[in-house]
Automatic annotation (TrEMBL):
<keyword id="KW-0560">Oxidoreductase</keyword>
<keyword id="KW-0274">FAD</keyword>
<dbReference type="Pfam" id="PF00890">
    <property type="entry name" value="FAD_binding_2"/>
</dbReference>
<keyword id="KW-0285">Flavoprotein</keyword>
<feature type="domain" description="FAD-dependent oxidoreductase 2 FAD-binding">
    <location>
        <begin position="3"/>
        <end position="430"/>
    </location>
</feature>
<dbReference type="InterPro" id="IPR036188">
    <property type="entry name" value="FAD/NAD-bd_sf"/>
</dbReference>
<dbReference type="InterPro" id="IPR012831">
    <property type="entry name" value="CobZ"/>
</dbReference>
<dbReference type="InterPro" id="IPR027477">
    <property type="entry name" value="Succ_DH/fumarate_Rdtase_cat_sf"/>
</dbReference>
<dbReference type="InterPro" id="IPR003953">
    <property type="entry name" value="FAD-dep_OxRdtase_2_FAD-bd"/>
</dbReference>
<dbReference type="GO" id="GO:0016491">
    <property type="term" value="F:oxidoreductase activity"/>
</dbReference>
<dbReference type="InterPro" id="IPR050315">
    <property type="entry name" value="FAD-oxidoreductase_2"/>
</dbReference>
<protein>
    <submittedName>
        <fullName>Tricarballylate dehydrogenase</fullName>
    </submittedName>
</protein>
Length: 473
């Protein structure tokens, strides 16, 4: 019998497996995907948000705890557990040395990734390189890995883990278990149930694209909910980004994101604007746009820019629709030309002169229209004009298992003695809504390491130190 069974194969699962093995525990990992698709959503990541009080290697200046916390507080609107959030923030300041010891390498912020040189450490080679480094290290340390082994059910004795049962009927026992198998973002039926119908009678989830892995079906999240595990979070909330409507159904990753939203305007299929495109810097606000598009008729939007802003954002992977005039652009997009031009003419007329600077919260804004554009508002008047059709791109969901600072799964507010959770399946404790760049990897790394340490300790009969405050506030 293994000491620790880790279910999942992404960043959080690997961090748990490595920490448990370093603590002397024997470890078996069960990954649902084939080897070539291992890593869950982590294979599509590129950076980790890190607290630091002074410049550190690839991180410039300082990004102190309080600023990180305020950034998180702002995007979540207060729907976060401060106790656990600050634990993650502090853990993000000292994890990179450990990551390097397992083969992860870092590089300076990409030139097109605005405002992240101070806050985010980028992985050399991206998320796939990080995942491969962790797997190489795990295998060297003696962690056993089984691919194409999706777990379907869990055998529990009250709040105690007994065994995991695969879809093929295999039964795996262990002294302790860490579940890190992701949310339910690839489960279309569950997404439909969570989002329901809108006022137009549409099922918004039918038009969602999945930025990440097709293997995150939420089977174990549903299993644990049936078993009475405490949960937290709204099933309709998640990391949802506006991505190119031509992106593949699964595994489009970061390259499908459209990053010019803040530098132009966005209209719906009726040619009407619906939100302030210049509300805040893109790394702090990009993740609200998937949900905004999801709330529009047909779950589609169109980002409109002109020649003036080309070169000021990360170029999309697909070329945009181009036209010499705005009416021609509307016609190419299949939008009603009259309402489109009313929206663009009203916006252009409302733009007030200012000092445009896309690297700061500048003074270029609109006056007299709703919704306003509060920064980076330049008239769209310099041909050629460009448009990118947008769809909601789901990265991961926020309905989660409730945890304490040992990563233990809780039943009726009592911690399981040998069942732990990490990654997307507990991220909703910290992310009630919203997102800021790189924080998912911060959560997965911190709680993966915590879960692995806790599982090894429980397997070895050592007690776990717990605090007193687990509730969201």
């Amino acid at each position: 019998m293994y000491d620790v069974l880790v279910i999942g194969g992404g960043n959080a699962a690997l961090c748990a497996a490595l920490m448990a093995r370093e603590a002397g525990a024997s470890v078996l990992m069960l990954e649902a995907s084939p080897k070539e698709w291992r890593g869950g959503n982590s294979q599509h990541t590129r950076n980790l948000r890190c607290m630091h009080d002074a410049p550190q290697d690839v991180l410039v200046e300082a990004y102190p705890e309080e600023e990180f916390w305020q950034d998180l507080l702002k995007v979540t609107g207060g729907e976060t557990n401060e106790y656990l959030a600050r634990l993650i923030i502090r853990a993000s300041s000292n994890c990179r040395g450990w990551m390097r010891s397992h083969g992860v390498r870092f590089q300076p912020s990409l030139s097109g990734a605005l405002h992240t040189a101070r806050t985010n450490a980028f992985f050399m080679g991206g998320g796939k390189a990080l995942i491969n480094a962790y797997y190489r290290s795990a295998e060297k340390l003696g962690v056993k890995v089984r691919y194409e082994t999706p777990v379907a059910t869990m055998e529990l004795d009250g709040d105690r883990f007994v065994a995991a049962i695969t879809e093929g009927g295999e039964r795996f026992t262990a002294k302790t278990c860490v579940i890190a198998s992701g949310g339910f973002e690839s489960n279309r039926a569950w997404l439909r149930e969570a989002w329901g119908r809108n006022d137009l009678g549409e099922w918004p989830a039918d038009n969602f694209l999945i930025r990440g892995t097709r293997y995150n079906q939420g089977a174990l999240l549903k299993e644990m909910m049936k078993a009475g595990a405490d949960t937290i979070g709204d099933p309709s909330q998640g990391h949802c980004v506006a991505i190119d409507a031509r992106a593949p159904l699964y595994d489009g990753g970061i390259c499908t994101r459209i990053d010019c939203v803040s530098l132009g305007v966005v209209v719906n299929k009726h040619g009407e604007r619906f939100y302030d495109e210049g509300e805040d810097f893109w790394p702090k606000r990009y993740a609200i746009w998937g949900r905004l598009v999801a709330q529009q008729p047909g779950q589609i939007g169109y980002s409109i820019i002109d020649r003036k802003v080309i070169g000021r954002f990360m170029p999309p992977v697909f070329p945009g629709v181009t036209a010499a005039t705005l009416p021609e652009l509307a016609a190419k997009l299949g939008l009603p030309v009259d309402s489109f031009m009313r929206s663009l003419d009203a916006y252009n007329a409302a733009c007030k002169p200012g000092s445009f600077n896309h690297t700061i919260l500048d003074d270029c804004r609109t006056e007299g229209i709703q919704p306003a554009k509060t920064h980076w508002a330049l008239p769209i008047d310099a041909p050629p004009f460009y448009a990118y059709a947008l769809r909601p791109g789901i990265t991961f969901t926020y309905l989660s298992l409730k945890v304490d600072e040992t990563a233990a799964v809780r039943f009726a507010d009592r911690a399981s003695p040998n069942l732990f959770v990490a990654g997307e399946m507990m991220a909703g404790n910290v992310l009630g809504k919203g997102y800021t760049a790189g924080v998912g990897m911060s959560i997965g790394t911190a709680f993966g390491r915590i879960a692995g340490t806790s599982a090894a300790a429980a397997a070895q009969g050592r007690s776990l130190m717990r605090g007193k405050n687990y509730g969201r506030h």
